[in-house]
């Protein structure tokens, strides 16, 4: 009966059924079982539908020891007799007729019996399916474990997945193991892989080894075909006659290694466990005013849920890294406290970072396919045009440019040998020849082939016909001498297909008697094989020495004996049939004779002499060339003994000195000296021994006292010869690429040792004859992308006028303005650019290319440097960057010459314009830019006159004054040497134009003088920092375009600094006329009564300085009329005559102090102009009265380990140049006394030491290029190893270098493509074998050795054509297997195997 019911559903109420009962207990506790629910019919009639329904349950995997459910049911019948016998029953799987019947087979026999009509509920219908048997009927079960569900697992094992969580791995492998090894691991199947299929072709056996994540190993022995259980899956193994097939459904619970020594084809699905994940936006590039921010991507481990390094995600080609996203941020305007900042578009105000690439390097090979590289980095540019490197993620919004590209891909020239000529003889042994040409990739005869590999052009050949053997069988050596020589000379040189010198016959002798000459022609000729004709060539086409074309001859003596004088044949053309009687007359002129003996080989102890043989002209009795005498008749060598007396003891010099002659060791000292100890001047040594040679030739070594002569010197100074230059390596360069795979190069500089022993860096051209060290190592960055076009170049000119006020060491100027400089000043003229390489900047002077002079040069960074400028350097300098150009007018103070331009520069309208030829195209018309040459000469002259008038009358002033600024002790070495006046005044051109425009009457009137004085006071107020930057640019100035900084107070600086008082011009119209405000540093001239006077003193410093006032050098007494304001400024109510005097404001903090003064004068009339000038400029050009002066530091007392330095510190009084030393107490108010001692050379006395280089078998980093290593360690003077930090201040030797090895002559070897897996559709692909192999031996090696070149693809898609809807055809070659496995009912197989599945 039914004990529990659920409420009847709406469907049940409409029918005659009662509600469903509760679910029954599951038929299994694990592995997937079935549970049922019942309902009853409430009518006596038949109800429509089923009274039972099922669902799956216990869908958890069973423990491994539980065993198979169907096998358990078979084994339960083992204790029941069948036909009178007990059997061990084994299950029969996958019965196609009735999969839900319990069929078992008896172990050991072929007996198969159906032991039960139905298996228990929950038993799987098939081993490879989730479908289960319920009440004897096979029910469909989806991967979601729901009955009747059609949900399927994808290839990755994900239910209803899209296949994106795994990757298909397929290929084939052929063993490359060494001889004697029985097997080779060829395939490793990773953990959790699925749908594994391997095919082993050949007679060899397949070995399977498993390995767990914990490292536990196991072996699987496969002998016979069948199914095997493997952890939580099954393994299907088939052993056929010509191959073995292995299938594993998976997922694998272990790593599996499969080994064999035959070809293995494999395919499996590997899980992807690392994925890219997009990050949040990075912080904004600015805090206000409009910036940008980007996202990035990080590699995420799906198993552990942690972020890992990017290399894990790069392992899977399917993982595509997301591109960064860019968005605007912080667009709100900046607050007033941050300064004024205008919001403009990105490309104008705040340019985005961009990729910057270097030029391509030279191609790695001249032919045969090489690579060239370049470096790409992410850079930012500010408004001043300063470009700085920044983090790469800022540029990832745009694709990165390529860092590698192929080059010189054409084939190298090769030798091409033509057909052999016929044999030179018709019988016996002869020679044959051929032409060998060097053919390039265009098929032309050219040079460039390796001469050592040239095929030979001549070889011996043997005719099949034997030669007739004459009766005269004597060899040449046995014949008379004259006959032997005739045979030697008769060989005629014939024309061959290789260019050869061919001599012609000798002409008759020029004299009928006596000595004469005879001539012949010698031509360079070649045999043209295709026409069998002889062609003449220039002599330089033939190799070897050209035979003589003239020789002496002699017929008969001129005594009247004619004999056979008609015979004129000479050595070069004697015929074989020449008569014997002719030879003596030819030889009468020259013959061999003895002439004395050579010197004795020893001066004592026994030696030998050799008789001298000469060729003598019988007529003149003078020695002649030996070639004129017959070599076969040369007399034998004669020897005789000499100097047999014993030798006295003597000094003998070792190492290169001849020990056979007594005195040679003393007179040829240079032979025995060792090499000089150093090239810049050193010593050389030799060994000196006392020896005696006895008559029998033996040598006796004796003490020094036995040698009567003075002992030669064994040491001497070497001649100071110039040291040769050599390469010195420095640091690794940046990676040659900013994306993909590149290389790093060890930079090298050319250095040379001077006569003083110091090393100097010189021009690399001086080391061009020495092999430059090439040390490279690979570097790998992210994948590359394309680049956007670069904008047009611009020049960041500055419209400034530079006026040099006093001598300075070096001035930094920028194009776009004018310069008035003192002679003998060093000038650097810069041309700051944007979007243009500084090395490509061009310079002109007066419209012509600027030529380097001994004192003038254009640096590689694009600026002009003039050492000690002179009058000839004045002129118009033009900087050209692409289509942009700017000018700079340079004039020399004191030069009488006015600048002018040539007639060709003057335009028709009379206005002066510089006509600059456009460097892009000389044929185009000149570009014109107006520039006025002498526009500001008058203003500059008045400023210089004003300066000289002040200096002339400076010393007449009685009132003390000071504008000197004390500096911190870090700068005290140069503080006292700095003058208070500026080195250079910098004015804006528009300010000078304004003054010129306001002076209608010219500069000579009183109003003009007042304007000039006011201009001078304005220009000198910003002297401090303007000249600091103009004279001493920052260290980065050599590589950046930084303009001179004007003085701008920094209110929020954080670093400590000395106090400074700000000087400002008088403000006109800012306050009521009854009140007067004068900034300290300016004179206060009261021509009419005022209600109050404020002397304003504004000071900066860190810590904030305190302000004090003095009057006429004494402390100021305050009262109700004279008092301080809260800002520290001084206010005087109703000023009168008693208030006249010099008021000085002093600003102090713990770092120092500074003062500035104003002269207050009450007057009713206007002062003379020159006194007005003096009072205004008095404060700007005053010298310090009392100050500290320091001398340079002495040399350090120790070179390492800690020493000390001292210097003299004095208190000086008076203006610079006329100062004198006073008591130290007088300087205490000006600041703390500078230190007179300090420590130096604190580094410990240690040095770097190295071991010898290891073998050259490191990682291959290029063609025939590997690496070798050595150990680098730090040791002290005793040779004991010490920690690395003790050598940290010294240059550390390299521990890695490149070396040449044959083992790295590797390349990618590519096999043929396999047959496509489909004839049409989207699923076809084919593969090929790609291995890293040795070029010469062909032996394969590990792939990472070839990774310095891109790896060719090993698979590709193929036959990607539409299969067409109307035609029923197969689109894969596996359709026969599909039909055998009864997979046709499945839609994905039926669509691809339409033809094979049409009858199923």
From TrEMBL:
Q: Biased-composition ranges for Acidic residues? A: 573-582
Region of interest (Disordered), ranges: 560-590, 951-976, 1024-1059
Q: List the disulfide bonds.
A: 26-57, 30-62, 41-47
InterPro entries this protein is in? ADAMTS/ADAMTS-like (IPR013273), ADAMTS_ADAMTS-like (IPR050439), ADAMTS_CR_3 (IPR045371), ADAMTSL1_dom (IPR056272), Ig-like_dom (IPR007110), Ig-like_dom_sf (IPR036179), Ig-like_fold (IPR013783), Ig_sub (IPR003599)
GO terms for biological process, alphabetical: extracellular matrix organization; proteolysis
Q: Which UniProt keywords apply?
A: Disulfide bond, Immunoglobulin domain, Repeat, Secreted, Signal
Keyword hit for DNA repair: no
The name under which this protein is listed is ADAMTS like 1
- What is the organism of origin for this protein? Lates calcarifer (Barramundi)
Source organism lineage?
Eukaryota, Metazoa, Chordata, Craniata, Vertebrata
